């Protein structure tokens, strides 16, 4: 049993052999106590004085032989345990390599079937899932590093065929390297998709704002009097300031488009979208300029109407005063009325 060359062909078999070897070691330990007791009893016969049933030397030789055999048995047991433990380390190493390859294959299949999403929401969801996968990758990398160290330790012992160990380590390293490359490529594609959908969302927001602003600046409401026209003009000037602030965002669209991945920036739809935004912005600016001029014209007209109305009121007042005026008969009273009339004329600028 102890000189057997069967060291197992897989981890479970080695574990079974180690368990059986443990029982054998326990049996050897129990027999060692019995042998030592028998040897001690036998040596007493070699120490007898007088009659000796056997030659003491024969007894001593026999005891030494049994002790030597027992020691050899213990050495064989220790040697076999070491070999079995080394075999367990070897097959444990191969099992860890197999588990690593299985895990790598699963992740490769997942990455091969993954898309980059259809909109901003799905891309963000996939990005979060990919971050979780990167965390798993980091944990698995640490485990794989430990397994590789075990492989190096097995090679250093030089008790097993190094070819199989080295080949398995090389295969796993290559597959791991490929997995990291595929993971990095997928992460890059996710980032490119995220940049594209963020660009599209920002462009859509800009278009919606420009459309709302166009409806505001194209309004035909110019007020109904001086006060309302002034209020509309103030609001319009605030809108014009906002339009000017958005000029940089519109001009930056082409730069942002150039930074997108080729598969995204070369699409006809996205290029047309950028042109539409630029044209819409130009229309908003043009209509805003016209509306500001129209508001200023309306304000000027309402102010003129206000001044004309003031003149009409003044003229009506003077007509009524003249109609009611009586020419005094006394010279002094005539001079007073004359001074009053001249003062009223001086106080009014009819040309205004």
UniProtKB/TrEMBL annotation:
<dbReference type="InterPro" id="IPR018159">
    <property type="entry name" value="Spectrin/alpha-actinin"/>
</dbReference>
<keyword id="KW-0009">Actin-binding</keyword>
<keyword id="KW-0677">Repeat</keyword>
<dbReference type="Pfam" id="PF00435">
    <property type="entry name" value="Spectrin"/>
</dbReference>
<dbReference type="GO" id="GO:0003779">
    <property type="term" value="F:actin binding"/>
</dbReference>
<dbReference type="InterPro" id="IPR002017">
    <property type="entry name" value="Spectrin_repeat"/>
</dbReference>
<protein>
    <submittedName>
        <fullName>SPTN4 protein</fullName>
    </submittedName>
</protein>
């Amino acid at each position: 049993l102890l000189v057997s060359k069967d060291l197992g062909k897989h981890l479970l078999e080695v574990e079974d052999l180690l368990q059986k070897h443990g029982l054998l070691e326990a049996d050897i330990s129990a027999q060692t106590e019995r042998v030592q007791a028998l040897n001690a009893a036998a040596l007493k016969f070699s120490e007898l004085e007088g009659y000796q049933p056997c030659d003491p030397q024969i007894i001593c030789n026999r005891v030494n032989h049994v002790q030597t055999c027992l020691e050899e048995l213990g050495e064989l047991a220790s040697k076999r345990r070491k070999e079995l433990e080394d075999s367990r380390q070897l097959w444990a190493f191969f099992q860890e390599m197999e588990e690593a390859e299985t895990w790598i294959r699963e992740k490769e299949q997942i990455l091969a079937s993954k898309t980059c999403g259809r909109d901003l929401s799905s891309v963000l969801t996939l990005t979060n899932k990919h971050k979780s996968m990167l965390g798993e990758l980091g944990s698995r990398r640490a485990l794989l590093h430990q397994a590789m160290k075990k492989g190096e330790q097995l090679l250093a012992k030089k008790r097993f065929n190094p070819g199989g160990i080295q080949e398995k380590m090389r295969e796993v390293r290559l597959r791991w390297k490929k997995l990291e490359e595929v993971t990095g490529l997928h992460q890059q594609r996710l980032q490119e998709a995220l940049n594209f959908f963020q660009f599209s969302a920002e462009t859509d927001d800009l278009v919606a704002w420009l459309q709302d602003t166009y409806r505001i600046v194209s309004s035909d409401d110019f007020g109904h009097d001086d006060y309302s026209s002034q209020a509309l003009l103030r609001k319009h000037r605030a809108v014009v300031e906002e339009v000017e602030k958005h000029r940089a965002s519109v001009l930056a669209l082409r730069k942002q488009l150039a930074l997108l991945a080729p598969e995204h920036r070369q699409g006809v739809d996205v290029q047309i979208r950028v042109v539409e935004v630029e044209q819409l912005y130009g229309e908003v600016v043009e209509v805003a300029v016209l509306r500001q001029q129209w508001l200023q014209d309306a304000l000027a007209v309402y102010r003129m109407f206000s001044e004309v109305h003031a003149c009409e009121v003044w003229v009506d007042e003077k007509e009524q005063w003249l109609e009611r005026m009586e020419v005094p008969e006394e010279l002094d009273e005539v001079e007073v009325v004359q001074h009053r009339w001249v003062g009223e004329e001086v106080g009014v600028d009819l040309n205004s």
